[in-house]
Amino acid sequence: MPIYLRKTRPVPKRPGRNVKPSEQSTKEPAANNIQQLGQVQVPQLESSLHTISIIGQIEGHMVLPPQNKTTKYEHIIPQLVAVEQNPKIEGLLIILNTVGGDVEAGLAIAEIIDTLTKPTVSLVLGGGHSIGVPVAVSSDYSFISETATMTIHPIRLSGFLIGVPQTYEYLDKMQDRVIRFVVNHSSVTEQKFRELMFNSGQLARDIGTVLVGKDAVDVGLVKEVGGLGQAVARLKELVEKRKAETAGVS
Q1: Is the pTM of the predicted complex or chain greater than 0.90?
Q2: Is the pLDDT confidence value at 235 over 70?
Q3: What are the residue ranges spanned by the domains of the chain?
Q4: What does CATH list as the number for 48-60+68-249?
């Protein structure tokens, strides 16, 4: 009696089948990097220096529209606390490219950076305007790139009418807090800073002053003109200095 062999259909390959786990695990992060960062692979480096970037507008108690590029202060503050508590982190680099934002949120970030026990260096790239100025000067050492700008202007409530004296007094006290913080953490004098803040000759529809690169250094607001390489090198120097002081005390 003849024997007939039944033909079987080939099993279609499913996505991810016959792929080694190691190959699959390396492809997924690469795809994520392309989507999120626009590059195939991000260089990984174990470093004792941590970087925090403050980009766009500093978002505080009010949620900004979704089309705005923002840095939420409730995201930055836990990072700063973690930097202080993590023994593996020896120094902090703060990179700023911000138009300003919520005054109290910006001051909160600046006050925490100022009270960190670990060395800190700030670098202004593009711009460090408005409440970004106290954040820039809150570090142990500050840099600004040659073409970066810093706008100094009075505190204002955009779109609101100051209808009662109490509101004006509150804004005036908040402005004094900003001035006091900047003066205490930089080489600029209070008289000079107020002069820059209330200058009426530079901005068409507002009062204030725009400082570009070396101008911010000349008035004593920022320590030095430089870029990323100089900022990292300076931070490493501060870390080594702190290690030497700690060893000498112990």
Answers
A1: no
A2: yes
A3: 48-60+68-249
A4: 3.90.226.10
